[in-house]
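Researcher: Let's do a round of design. I'm pasting the structure tokens now; please hold your answer until I've finished.
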């Protein structure tokens, strides 16, 4: 699934297969979000846990499927 481009390079996800037009956003698992949050934390050292949660809450798949309360349980901090 093509998520866009950055510096002229495509940003792709490996969590879905098929044409973009046939893929629906789905809620990511707790474990997947925890792995993403770890990667963000390791890359952007100045971000707080709250900022990471706020960022994730705005992302397709999370925004309409996971509440702020649930994400706080999954990503305490």
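Researcher: That's everything. Go ahead.
Model: Designed sequence:
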């Amino acid at each position: 699934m093509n998520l866009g481009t950055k510096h002229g390079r495509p940003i792709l996800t490996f969590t879905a297969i098929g044409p973009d037009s046939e893929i629906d956003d789905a809620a990511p698992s707790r474990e997947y979000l925890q792995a993403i949050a770890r990667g963000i934390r390791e890359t952007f050292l100045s971000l707080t846990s709250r900022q990471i949660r706020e960022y994730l809450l705005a992302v397709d798949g999370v925004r309409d499927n996971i509440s702020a309360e649930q994400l706080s349980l999954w990503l305490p901090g």
